[in-house]
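ok, trying the design again with the full structure, not the truncated one.
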C-alpha cells in the first residue's frame, strides 16, 4: 500500500496530493473501483453530482470501514444548479447520496457563464462552509478572470482550482496566477484522458526509469506541485498510479515534457461551456 503525501491549503487544512478520479465511472462500477483505490492507499476521492456515482462512492466509503476523517472527499455543484438556493439544495442531495454529513471540499464545477451566476453559486458554497457541510471551498475550470471576480466580491480565495491539465495543455499563465494567489492547481484528465499513454516522448522517459507512461505523467504533475486525479477502473492501474514515489524525473525529462505543450484541450473551454 502506498500513501501520497499531502499539500497545505490556504485555509490551513491539508489535501492528499493524489486523488482518485471518478469521472466516467458508472455508479455500480464506482463501488469496486473506489474500494480498490482505498485498498491501494488512496485517501482522496474526487466525485461530482454530474458523475452520477456519489451513491457508489459513499457505499465504498462505508464498506471500507475506514474512519471518515481519514478520507478526503470532494464533490461539485453542476452547471444546471447554479444560483444560491439551488446550490444549497444540490449539496443536500450530494450528501444524502454519499451518506455523509460533510464533504472535505465542495467545488463550483464550471463557471458556466451561460446558465447561471457563478458569483451567487460561490456565495452559497461559502454559506455551506459556514454550516459545516464542507470543510474547504474551491472551484473547477475557472480562468483567472472568473477567479478574480469571486475573490473581489467576497475576499475569500478558493483553496484550489481543478482544471484540465496534462503535457498537451500545460496552462502556464493560469498556474502562475494560482501560485501567486495561494490557490493550489489540481489536474483533471492528468493523462489527457489516456491520449498520451502511447506518446513517444513520454514513452522514452518511461523506459529510462522503468516505469509506465501513466506513472511518468503523474510524477510530472507532482513535481510541478499539482494535486493530481488519475482515473482508472482497472485495479492494477489504480495501484500503479499511486506507486510513483520510487523515481524522480530529472531536468532533461522535465524539459522534454515542457516542450510538449500544444495548448490542446480534450474538453471544452470554460468560457464557452454551457
Ligand atoms: P481504465 O479506466 O480503463 O483503466 P485521465 O485520468 O487522464 O482521465 O485518463 C483516464 C484513462 O487512462 C482511462 O481510459 C484509463 O483506463 C486510462 N488509464 C489510467 N491509468 C492507466 C495506466 N496506469 N495505464 C494505462 N491506462 C491507464
Amino acid at each position: 500500500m502506498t500513501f501520497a503525501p499531502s499539500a497545505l491549503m490556504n485555509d490551513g487544512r491539508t489535501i492528499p496530493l493524489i486523488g482518485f478520479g471518478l469521472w466516467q465511472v458508472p455508479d455500480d462500477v464506482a463501488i469496486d473501483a473506489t474500494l480498490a483505490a482505498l485498498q491501494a492507499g488512496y485517501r482522496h476521492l474526487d466525485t461530482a453530482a454530474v458523475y452520477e456515482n456519489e451513491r457508489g462512492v459513499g457505499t465504498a466509503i462505508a464498506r471500507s470501514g475506514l474512519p471518515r476523517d481519514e478520507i478526503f472527499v470532494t464533490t461539485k455543484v453542476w452547471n444546471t444548479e447554479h444560483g444560491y438556493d439551488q446550490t444549497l439544495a444540490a449539496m443536500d442531495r450530494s450528501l444524502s447520496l454519499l451518506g455523509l454529513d460533510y464533504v472535505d471540499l465542495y467545488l463550483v464545477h464550471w463557471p458556466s457563464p451561460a446558465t447561471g451566476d457563478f458569483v451567487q453559486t460561490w456565495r452559497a458554497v461559502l454559506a455551506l462552509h459556514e454550516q459545516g457541510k464542507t470543510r474547504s471551498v474551491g472551484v473547477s475550470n475557472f480562468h483567472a478572470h472568473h477567479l478574480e471576480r469571486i475573490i473581489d466580491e467576497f475576499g475569500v480565495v478558493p483553496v484550489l482550482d481543478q482544471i484540465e491539465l496534462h503535457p498537451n495543455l500545460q496552462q502556464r499563465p493560469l498556474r502562475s496566477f494560482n501560485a501567486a494567489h495561494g490557490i493550489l492547481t489540481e489536474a483533471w484528465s492528468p493523462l489527457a484522458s489516456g491520449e498520451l499513454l502511447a506518446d513517444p516522448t513520454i514513452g522514452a522517459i518511461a523506459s529510462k526509469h522503468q516505469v509506465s507512461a501513466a506513472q511518468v505523467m503523474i510524477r510530472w504533475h507532482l513535481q510541478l506541485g499539482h494535486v493530481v486525479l488519475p482515473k482508472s477502473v482497472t485495479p492494477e492501474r489504480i495501484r500503479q498510479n499511486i506507486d510513483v514515489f520510487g523515481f524522480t524525473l530529472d531536468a532533461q525529462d522535465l524539459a522534454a515534457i515542457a516542450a510538449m505543450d500544444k495548448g490542446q484541450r480534450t474538453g471544452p473551454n470554460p468560457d464557452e461551456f454551457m
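Keeping the full-length input from now on. Strands lie at 6-8, 14-16, 20-21, 44-46, 72-77, 103-108, 134-140, 160-164, 184-188, 227-228.
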